[in-house]
């Protein structure tokens, strides 16, 4: 089931209680943010792999892109996720 489908179907407090309900809402929220960040960043980095070709057994990875040494910062405004790409703050020597 896709995240959007789960959100449309709705989540309610059940026998697991309100804490479980809130944890589930938080997991859905962070899942959306992670998946959106993966979609924005078109490179391989850490455990996140992007493929030029994905036809097992042939798999060509997109290499790490050094120009992508940036942050993707998410904010939630009016119920929607907004994002921007920022340069990391680096110490001045």
Describe the structure.
This protein has 93 residues and is an alpha+beta fold. It has one domain. It is built from two helices and four strands; from the N terminus they run ααββββ. The protein has helices at residues 3-9, 17-40, and strands spanning 51-55, 58-61, 71-77, 80-86. The chain has a two-stranded antiparallel sheet. A two-stranded antiparallel ribbon has the order 3-4. A hairpin with a 2-residue loop joins strand 1 and strand 2 (58-61). The longest helix is centred in the N-terminal third of the chain and has 24 residues, at 17-40. It is extended and about 50 Å long. The termini are far apart. The mean pLDDT is 86.
Give the gist of this structure.
33% of the residues lie in helices and 25% in strands. With 93 residues, the protein is an alpha+beta fold. The strands form two sheets. Strands 1-2 form a two-stranded antiparallel sheet. A two-stranded antiparallel sheet has the order 3-4.
Can you lay out the helices and strands and say which pair or pack?
Blueprint: H1 3-9, H2 17-40, E1 51-55, E2 58-61, E3 71-77, E4 80-86
Antiparallel strand pairs: 1-2, 3-4
Pfam families: Succ_DH_flav_C (PF02910)
GO molecular function: oxidoreductase activity
Organism: Dictyoglomus thermophilum
